[in-house]
Design brief:
By secondary structure, the chain is of the alpha/beta class. 44% of the residues lie in helices and 16% in strands. The strands form two sheets. An eight-stranded parallel beta barrel has the order 1-2-3-4-5-6-7-10, surrounded by five helices. Helix 2 runs parallel beside helix 3. The longest helix has 27 residues. It is globular, with a radius of gyration of 22 Å.
Length: 298
């Protein structure tokens, strides 16, 4: 025979366990889930099927495809080849998360064709090519001259349902290296048409400890996050595996609270043109490290 007190205690325990279970399930549902893709620059000599299987086995959700000069698919071949790549990825339940392109203007017929084919195949996002400064001329007028080009491209993106992402890149001639100029260039453009791909490695090279200021600056325009690391060797920059360089780990913990809705692209740059197998292994190792930095369980 159970006493009334025992019955009430058991009922309380059961209710508490159910509440904990419910809160745990809610916490899991609210936990950020990032889409992480592999930049395939150094493994693009694999066939489409081999690439898809390799990327899937590594645990990535998709790829940053190289549809550009000297890429896996040359722009001139996009109509015949891009459908084959998309089909191979689909076989492994993968997609082109970002398409790395040569596009930075709307009035180039080949670039327009590339975008139209990509859009017809379900690609939603592409990385732009860069605008570059002539360092022998005043900077601000050049930025003003780039603005109409960006607006025309934004209009084409709107028509096609595409979003361009402009990656900040270290180097004096690159528009956007400081990020302040890129934010100014895009101030009248909807981020749904042209967003910023924040590269924490390049932002740290150019801004040092101000990377966090730059990160806050571009939040309203964020469209993607590029992941890689580096160290200084004297006055030169040397790329290193993720987590072994100067990129601040707190960048990733800040992402646990902000913008889990944008994709990540893992860029393995530290091996260069070493063997494909070595670069595949680097993609594996850096993905594990990224998951660790983001607090994602293996």
């Amino acid at each position: 025979m159970f006493s009334r007190r025992h019955f009430l205690n058991q009922l309380t325990l059961a209710s508490g366990a159910a509440a904990v279970s419910r809160l745990s399930a809610e916490a899991q549902a609210q936990k950020p889930s990032w889409e992480i893709c592999a930049f395939v620059k150094f493994v693009q000599d694999l066939s489409y099927a081999e690439l898809a299987k390799t990327v899937a086995q590594l645990g990535y959700a998709g790829i940053e495809a190289t549809i550009r000069k000297r890429g896996q698919i040359e722009p001139e071949s996009v109509e015949g080849e891009l459908p084959k790549l998309v089909a191979a990825l689909d076989e492994e339940d993968l997609a082109i998360t970002i398409m790395a392109s040569d596009v930075n203007r709307a009035d180039d017929p080949l670039m327009e064709k590339t975008l139209r084919v990509a859009a017809s195949l379900g690609v939603k996002r592409y990385r732009m090519s860069y605008y570059r400064y002539d360092l022998d001329r005043p900077i601000r007028p050049q930025l003003d001259n780039f603005r109409p080009m960006a607006k025309e491209l934004a209009a084409l993106n709107r028509e096609l349902g595409l979003q361009a992402v402009y990656q900040n890149h270290a180097g004096a001639r690159y528009v956007g290296a400081s990020l302040w100029d890129l934010d100014l260039l895009l101030e009248d453009i909807d981020p749904a048409q042209i967003a910023i791909g924040f590269d924490v490695r390049h932002a740290t090279v150019e801004g040092g400890t101000t990377w966090s200021t730059l990160w806050k600056l571009i939040q309203p325009r964020l469209g993607a996050v590029y992941v890689k690391d580096f160290v200084w060797k004297g006055l030169k920059v040397e790329n290193v595996p993720l987590g072994q360089g100067r990129v601040d780990p707190t960048f990733f913990t800040s992402l646990a609270r902000k913008r889990p809705d944008v994709p990540f692209a893992v860029h393995v740059e530290y091996l260069g043109k070493r063997s494909t197998a070595e670069n595949v292994e680097a993609l594996r190792v850096d993905l594990i490290k990224l998951r660790e930095l983001l607090g994602i369980a293996p």
